[in-house]
Amino acid sequence: MLVDPHPAHFVRDPPHKGEGKAAPRLTLSGISKSFPGVRALHDVSLSLYPGQVTALIGENGAGKSTLVKIMTGIYQPDAGTISIDGQAVTLPSAHAAFGHGITAIHQETVLFDDLTVAENILLGHAPRSRFGTIDWRTMRKNAREVLNTMGAGHIDADARLKDLGIANKHLVAVARAMSIDAQIVIMDEPTAALSLKEIEELFLLVEFLKSEGKAILFISHKFDEIYRIADRYTVFRDGEMVGEGLIRDAGQSQIVRMMVGRAVDHIFPQRKAEIGAPVLAVSGLSHPTEFDDIGFELHRGEILGFYGLVGAGRSEVMQAISGITRTSSGTITLEGKAIVPKSAADSIDAGIVYVPEERGKQGVVIGLPIFQNISLPSLKRTSKSGVLRLAEEFALARSYTERLDLRASSLSQDVGTLSGGNQQKIVIAKWLATTPKVIILDEPTKGIDIGSKAAVHGFMAELVAQGLSVIMVSSELPEILGMSDRVVVMREGRIASVYDNKRLDAETLVKTAAGIAA
Amino acid sequence: MTDTPAPRYIPDRLDKPLNAAIFSWEALLVAVAVAIFAVNSFASPYFLDVWSLSDLTFNFTEKALIALAMALLIISGEIDLSVAAIIALASTMMGMAMQAGAGTPVLVAIGILVGLGCGAFNGLLVTRLGLPSIVVTIGTMSLFRGIAFIVLGDQAYKGYPSSFAFFGQGYVWWVVSFELTLFLVAAVIYWFLLHRTSFGRRVFAIGNNPVAAQFSGVRVGRIKFILFCLTGLMAGIASVLITSRLGSTRPSIAQGYELEVITMVVLGGVSILGGAGSIVGVVLAAFIMGLVTFGLGLLNVPGIVMSIFIGLLLIIVIALPIVWRRVRRERLT
Amino acid sequence: MKVFPRYREVWLLAAIVVLIGLISMRFPGFAAFGNLRQLFNDTSILMILALGQMVVILTRSIDLSMASNLCFTGMVVAMLNAAHPAIPIPLLIVIALLVGLVLGAINGFLVWRLNIPSIVVTLGTLTIYRGATFVISGGAWVNADQMSPDFIGLQRAAFLGIPVLSWIAILVIALFFLLMTRTALGRSIYAIGVNPTASVYAGIDVGRTKFIVFCISGMAAGLCGYLWISRYVIASVEVANGYELNIIAACVIGGISIAGGIGSVGGAVLGALFLGIISNALPVINISPFWQMAISGSAIILAVVLNARGERRQGRIILKKAEAA
């Protein structure tokens, strides 16, 4: 158990009276911020109240991360005021924000893997001895105290952070916030990399922070989480604030309307693809530490979903099939022919492409323009004996970006200037342009806005209708259930079960993935 | 972030405003070169003589040849600090062969092959063992030059055949030296390779994001290996030219060249962090460095003081656009 | 696997002991206390320089200008001493530290304020500082007979049987040890190397910290400027030419990762000692000193290979072991 769910001072259901009247701890008003050529925020306001969770909601590119960077002192606003407990403040640096008790908990980036837990908690405000040097003993003691108050006494203050699981890393991040006596805690998509169980544990932590009277800003794309944990909401669209209020007064569709400026019923596309003969057959695929005895078949026109908890080995299997990592044994057969891909280049040549999960790190090449990103895996086709043919590259890029409804000012624009959703379209386009037989999509809609999501799903349906075969790795149940023909569930590096997606329910999948007997 | 609520049709490229061309890195370098040229011709009456100008080119062609390959290597995110040591080792090997009675063609072949071999050795260590190139090549720098010292000690090889002198001292036509001709031909080849072939495109992709490049089917290791080989090869060619020009080999030959080559590349607008750069910039930077050294030489400024100018030039040319951008942004707000 | 990186210094120490053991098999006098004391004294300057370079490398930067800084500062103090022999040596040392600090601060300022990569900045100042030495000296040398006896004599003096130069090195090592393990600055330096983005969010001023590390490396180089000149009793433009790469080599052999965040005071000291032993031992065991360069080159390559083995992260382990039966 990570956190005792019912410590004595824990108020499960804070009384709502006086909500509107309680003084906000932090108020941002009239904040504007522009970058060369882009208006990121225009005259936005936001208030955070002690003991309450405010959800910040908006599509990608709505200006949420810019606001977080302003609140943590990384960016300076062009206009507007920030006040804490009614006092106007400026936050010229991250250090200043820190001094005002503002702290941010990010997905993974805020902590230091090679430092110890105690160092991570107390870095920047370590106790000093008489001589001004770091007092290690007091430091460990303080760290332990903080962890104990949170009911996380099981974490060793001397352990290196890299030896902890992701959930415990979150605990350390929260402990850090506690130790600086942060009054304002920003949680920027904290659940993105977490499994269901870890998310539950995180929510207990949020409840704990609320009970301590912290003002919390919670940023998430997931409505179930927002309704679970938030007290208030603020909605951004295109850099402007378009609505705020109490979450219990607002319906989900109302908030979605505010986000997108129109009502969107996300319905998964109807598909009429004929499922044909097997195209890809994998059997006995094994790796010394990552997965074991993986076997499945993929048919023409099929979408095969791969479901499992984060870290179940799904991406690792897909990277092995596409030649990026090596296997210790097993066979891969494509259209009846055994293939042994030794690199991504081999598998692309054979007709299997892998669209990776980490868009920024593995997908797009930031620094290169759109058309060069798209042609990169297809350079053999768009060049003649090694000499580039720009016209062909532009033609290739145009045909795919049009199909995916890309929004950009020109094909020579640097991909780094596009929003997450549009970058994802580039990522899909570049691998699709190699005209593969099998396309493996790893978390294709992770962290992108609803509009782009629908475009990606619609496109997948189009692909299989044209006779392609798709493997879709996803941790989002609605997506798995809405898109797959069959679902493979993986657990701890092995295939736990394969289901036909007829009358399949979410509960069965979750239980199989977690290893709970149905 | 910049989703322009889109027209369905996306143009290939937007018309570049004229000032984008005016404020490009290459334009800045041209301006600097013209300025130095003008100052030189005012300062010394001997400067504007064709033979002076021809002599000028000997100052930089050998280093510039290496800089061409080094530019590609740095764009791909790697670096080679051992190039000067490769020159020393290749020159020493040529000297050994010369003493054993080898003729000019064999000497040239040895120089080039030793360079290629050293480059391949660096490439193997970096790509096969996954080691950081800056450290590996500090090591091989000591190793290669160290071997030259073991062979030669405080001795020198002298007495290269007279036909060997052509490469470093000969002229192809009138005042156009063989070295300059070779450099210009090589510059065209490298320009084509970097900017007009799929190989060059992959080099840029690797420099900007090696992981995404690998996922996109770029054979990252193989391309980096080739780039180390090319750099070694160019160092081998440079070794032939220098040995031929000096007519002798000492183990301390070309000492400190590696930093001048890298200065040339960075001055040419290649990002030291990888991913960006152009051959035109590197060629311009080579001429600028030659002009500075030669012009100051005519004014009897000692070499060591010239290096101050090169160092200042490097920092100022890099800092200028940064300061300029900052000032302009402040004026806008 | 986990133990290895933490105790890399122990392995290096073991290698040094074995090396000394092997040499003394052929030449028994080598391991004698007197000779080892001499060895330490000979390596003192390199140790101090390596420590200065270490703090820079830990923050994912590099200082190529240290040897030029040393050369310039050495010339300044030598010329001061030649012109005004009355200036007391402690004051000269303070001047050396200050001059070094200023040159380091110039590097740091360019890295911090203009955000130019440190390798570019220090490549530029490498040539500028050495050129400046020529400008202030007019190309002339300062010879032993122009220096005051105190200037030359200080570090030849011994205290408790150990030369003053060695005492200075010991003091510097102790200061660096305190800095890296007992101060918030030391923690920040490691944190920046491990994860620069996270450091910003943790409230560390990354730019300012980088500025400070260049000031530290500058001061180390400045101090060595005096030490070098008074030891080798000649100040010229050629002093320590190319030495910047020896300094980096000592760090690399000492296990300091060029990618930042990994390395220790002990490692830097041992790395310098290792190079010192090689250069000292060769004449003793009758190998031409011309072998020294190739041997240190091989040692660097070997050290990188071994360090990379230790640093290499293991892949994720997903499969549960022994799910037998």
TrEMBL record, chain A:
Citing just one GO molecular function, the answer is: ATP binding
What superkingdom heads the lineage? Bacteria
Keywords of the record, alphabetical order, are: ATP-binding, Cell membrane, Membrane, Nucleotide-binding, Repeat, Sugar transport, Translocase, Transport
Query: Per the record, which residues fall in region Disordered?
Result: 1-22
Q: Where is the ABC transporter domain?
A: 26-263, 275-517
Under the heading Pfam families, the entry gives: ABC_tran
Alphabetized PANTHER family for the sequence: CARBOHYDRATE TRANSPORT ATP-BINDING PROTEIN MG119-RELATED (PTHR43790), D-ALLOSE IMPORT ATP-BINDING PROTEIN ALSA-RELATED (PTHR43790:SF3)
**According to its UniProt record, which protein family does this protein belong to?**
Belongs to the ABC transporter superfamily.
Query: What name does UniProt use for this protein?
Result: Ribose import ATP-binding protein RbsA 1
Q: Which organism does this sequence originate in?
A: Mesorhizobium escarrei
UniProtKB/TrEMBL annotation, chain B:
SUBUNIT field: The complex is composed of two ATP-binding proteins (LsrA), two transmembrane proteins (LsrC and LsrD) and a solute-binding protein (LsrB).
Q: Which domain of life is it from?
A: Bacteria
Q: Where are the transmembrane segments?
A: 21-44, 64-90, 102-125, 131-152, 172-193, 225-243, 264-292, 304-324
User: What is the protein's known function?
Assistant: Part of the ABC transporter complex LsrABCD involved in autoinducer 2 (AI-2) import. Probably responsible for the translocation of the substrate across the membrane.
Task: Report the protein name in the record.
Answer: Autoinducer 2 import system permease protein LsrD
The record's annotation in CDD domains points to: TM_PBP1_transp_AraH_like (cd06579)
Q: Where in the cell is it found?
A: Cell membrane
Q: What InterPro entries does UniProt report for this protein, alphabetically?
A: ABC_transp_permease (IPR001851)
Alphabetically list the UniProt keywords: Cell inner membrane, Cell membrane, Membrane, Transmembrane, Transmembrane helix, Transport
Any Pfam family: BPD_transp_2
Q: How does it sit in the membrane?
A: Multi-pass membrane protein
TrEMBL record, chain C:
Principal subcellular localisation of the protein: membrane
Q: Which UniProt keywords apply?
A: Cell membrane, Membrane, Transmembrane, Transmembrane helix
Please report the name of this protein according to its UniProt entry.
Answer: Branched-chain amino acid ABC transporter permease
- A single Pfam family, by name? BPD_transp_2
Could you tell me where this protein is found in the cell?
Cell membrane
Q: Do the record's keywords include Transmembrane?
A: yes
Membrane topology label: Multi-pass membrane protein
Lineage summary: Bacteria, Pseudomonadati, Pseudomonadota, Alphaproteobacteria, Hyphomicrobiales
Query: Which residue windows are transmembrane per the record?
Result: 12-33, 39-59, 66-83, 89-112, 119-142, 157-178, 185-204, 210-233, 245-278, 290-308
InterPro entries, A to Z: ABC_transp_permease
